[in-house]
Here is the input.
Amino acid sequence: MSTSVFAAAAAALFPPLTGHRSPPASRVPVIFRRRIGSKSRLFTSSSPSLPILPAAAMATDGVAPAASDAGSKKKLLIFDSEEELAVSLAKYTAELSEKFAAERGAFTAVLSGGSLIQALRKLTEPPYLNSVDWSKWHVFWVDERVVPKDHEDSNYKLAFDGFLSKLPIPPGQVYAINDALSAEGAADDYETCLKQLVKNGVVAMSAATGFPRFDLQLLGMGPDGHIASLFPGHPLVNEKERWVTYIKDSPKPPPERITFTFPVINSSAYVAMVVTGAGKAAAVQKALSEKQASSDLLPVEMAVLQDGEFTWFTDKEAVSMLQNK
Ligand SMILES: O=C1O[C@H](COP(=O)(O)O)[C@@H](O)[C@H](O)[C@H]1O
Here is the structure.
């Protein structure tokens, strides 16, 4: 891949790698930029109290290798095209699959629905089709619509048709919701399933939060800043106890859904937030620039990992409203 990568840090949000900082008063990210490649740009940050990623931890082709588990880190990758994003997302996911398969004998991958599934298409092609150890994969959904599995609105169907049906993942390791149950029943059932998988060691537990710690959550974001089925202004965004909950009045159809809660999303080891297109630029701009009062946070802004690495995979259109790109 003929790739250029720029490493950069937005001083307000992303502390620079070598100590350059914009004045604290500035709410507009000032970009510190260092050329390390050619077509995508990489912004990294960690919270001020946490170690800043060394340049060596950055990608040579737009993808950051698996990081250590210490602290919470944020990265912003900007690709010239969705095609390049898809290539990098496949490499990133394959590397994490290898890391966790070696470390714990299993790789727990959480999928969203929506545009994410199309962005995962490169994993279904060589070299990944043959090089990834698919037998180690355990697949979950961050949210699901309460519809039959063969319904056009089903996130399972979307993932099966576009991704899972092309991969040799053991069917018993693909954890779809029980579509014979009500929304309440399906959420309870999925939570019970997760608890069992924690007990038998397939899903890790976060010692820090007491919630399950998935290896990688591959998430999308709606134009309104929703992630999973956690919508702006909906009380579900404040759920603190449940692992999986349900919604019956989703503003985006269909209305009945089940969803992971923020404590589960935020306990992940890695999150890839995959966001493309100009229609999402306003939400990206809000999430990645000036911080608002906490009552005004979009769901995507509430995705803050306790101890993990959060990487935005974006294209130029999605970041078109950010300043100093
Ligand atoms: O309804 C949903 O929407 C979001 C975003 O979808 P996208 O097509 O705009 O990427 C998705 O992440 C979620 O899983 C899905 O249920």
